[in-house]
Amino acid sequence: MYAAAALLFFPPIAVGVTEIHTAFNPAAQVAAVVCYCLSVLLAATRPGPRQMGDLAVVTSSLLMVLCVCLSYEASPSAMQDWNAPWYSLGIHSYLATLVVRKRAGWAWVTLCVALAFAATYGARTERGPLYGALTLVSLVGLLAAAQILTSEMERLFTRRREAWCLGASAKTTDEENQDLVNASIRRIQEVRRMAGGLLERIAQDSSPVTDYDISQFRLTEAQLRDSIRGRSIANPRLLEVTRNARARGVTVDILDERGVPVPPHIMEIVTDQAVDVLDAAQAGAVTIRAFPEDDPTAVFIVHDPGDEDSDAVAIEIAQGTGEVSVF
């Protein structure tokens, strides 16, 4: 960016400096070069957002107009010739820069004021005001072309951004759909693993259903329910131990208020503690509850033996650290 600005704005400075010694009014020529330098510095090298600030654009435009006026004062005879002024390339680049930096209105204002001054100085010569204005008339076409080009580029970039957003949205949707498909596949595999044998028994074996079969159906149904209600903590090992505890007559509830998986290091502690409680339980009720992520407790395990002579057991596993507290 700075290299391009140097190529566009530096040559007029060099030309303006070389004309100081030949100018009718060297002091005015020096002042014109200084105003030009300050103007382009504000317009082309000002850091920040693409759109120039109000103070910067007003100051820069005023300095460029002063540059035009002082140049005519420095070399009044230049109006007699058809040669372009020394700042010609610079003012063309300057106005285009204002358009690019979303200050097209100020570019037109600067051009109109510069044309007015050029016409005024032209009126002092034999050529007349029209000739004076014609020295800068090419800027009108430049500004119009710059605005059209900038508008088309903005439209192109907008379309590219929209296309990118649509592509990203489609990709996200595809990923979400794939996640749903993968979750469905995993769920089917879980159901097949837990209930596949019993479903085949119902579908293919026409023999009468025994009490043992009914008990297995109930245990499997409870196991499937655990895998749904306690999804964040119901791993295969815990589900198997829970099934065995229910077979002994223990009532087991696995509840999930968390909604997201428990961290692996916490899950390992939870599984070990729950398995110990379930293996030791011969009666009563065991409740395993996972709490939300913002709760200080990750999982709470309670065993109520249902016997006044036996003490209840409560185990709290802390969030984050996995610290185990037994009550």
Describe this structure as you would to a colleague.
- This protein is of the alpha+beta class and about 325 residues long.
- The protein folds into three domains: about 1-135; about 155-205; about 210-325, no CATH class.
- The chain contains ten helices and five strands, in the order αααααααααβαββββ.
- The chain has helices at about 1-20, 25-45, 55-75, 90-100, 105-125, 130-135, 140-205, 210-230, 235-245, 265-280; strands spanning about 250-255, 285-290, 295-305, 315-320, 325.
- The chain has a five-stranded mixed β-sheet with strand order 1-2-3-4-5, covered by helices on one side.
- The two termini are about 70 Å apart.
- The model has no long low-confidence stretch (mean pLDDT about 80).
Give the N-to-C terminal Cα separation: 69 Å
Major sheet summary line = 5 strands, mixed
Secondary structure: number of strands: 5
Helical fraction equals 55-70%
Q: Choose one word for the global shape.
A: rod-shaped
**In angstroms, what is the radius of gyration?**
42 Å
Q: Give average pLDDT, whole number.
A: 81
Proportion in β-strands? 5-15%
